[in-house]
Amino acid sequence: FINRQDGRMRGTIEEGVWMEMNEIRKLRVEAGWIWKISPRSTVAWYEVEKSYGVYPSGVSETGVKSSYAGHIRSEGVGLLGLSWSPAKNVQFQFWEQYAENVFNTALFRSDWKVPVSPDVHLISGLMVVRQDALNDGGNPDPAKAYIRKGSRAQVFSGRAGAGIRKFEFTFNYTRILDDGRFLMPREWGREPFYTFMPRERNEGFADVHAVNVSAGASLLNGRLKPSLSYGHFYLPDVKDAKRNKYGMPAYRQLNAEVRYAFSGYLKGMALQFLMVYKGEMGETYGEYRYVFNKVNMLNWNVMVDYKF
């Protein structure tokens, strides 16, 4: 739930304490407490409670502009992770994220790769997420709370596919139930759903169906990685503030990406090309605020990273 995120010269960085234990065979235990966050594309450090709302915060469930920025009360974020690999191609994960005084999110994930032949394997994955508001959602004043008191969200995400030699193909599906918005501060990272595609998220929505297909390859000993993905994301109506925090219409998205990692004297340098097309599928009522920088757009990115 807290990660570097994608496609930025400076990713998200955290300050806190972290513990990792690998003494039990096939089991890794991770735990920590975070008290400061420096969101991606920034150089400033924020106490966790002040990191809420650094990025645009959308609207509240009543349809008015969210005003939780600068008004959240929280001591930090606690994380606990358990990763168990009973076999070479099987992994189970459980993660608990405790945003003190604001919300709690729990995740269970299982991933399988089943060999069929020396050149072919099957892929499957399942993810279940449960989120619950804590206390007053960060502030006793509902207008300044990050999450509505008593609210909850449930998410199911799945994957099925196959790998053939150096190529992999997957079909992915995510369902956010109509219990409540799934919320995750965008200042902290991106959601871990199988249907995630760079340059868009499904955070801030309820009652969502998302489906995509993805194909990728690992060539030249893993240094060249081309990929192609296409998805449909069925979101609530843009005027349904209770279920649509950012006024985003349903959309379709196509991503084409190529990553290349240099070797030899240029080892540590990586080149990435990303093209994203997003098309409108939902009603926008002729209002450009639901279109500009959201849908009916083509986005090109060329990025060079050097790590040393």
What key phrases describe this protein's structure?
308 residues; 1 helix; 1% helix; mainly beta
Plain-language structure description:
The chain has 308 residues and is mainly beta. Helices cover 1% and strands 49% of the residues. It has one helix spanning 48-51; strands at 13-21, 27-38, 46-47, 77-87, 90-99, 103-117, 120-133, 152-164, 167-176, 208-217, 224-234, 251-261, 269-280, 297-306. Strands 1, 2, 3, 4, 5, 6, 7, 8, 9, 10, 11, 12, 13 and 14 form a 14-stranded antiparallel beta sheet that branches. The protein starts with 12 loop residues before the first strand and ends with a strand.
Our count of helices gives: 1
Relative strand content: over 45%
Compute the gyration radius: what is it?
Answer: 20 Å
Largest sheet: 14 strands, antiparallel
Fold topology:
Elements: E1 13-21, E2 27-38, E3 46-47, H1 48-51, E4 77-87, E5 90-99, E6 103-117, E7 120-133, E8 152-164, E9 167-176, E10 208-217, E11 224-234, E12 251-261, E13 269-280, E14 297-306
A few lines on this structure:
The chain has 308 residues and is mostly beta strands. The protein has one helix and 14 strands; from the N terminus they run βββαβββββββββββ.
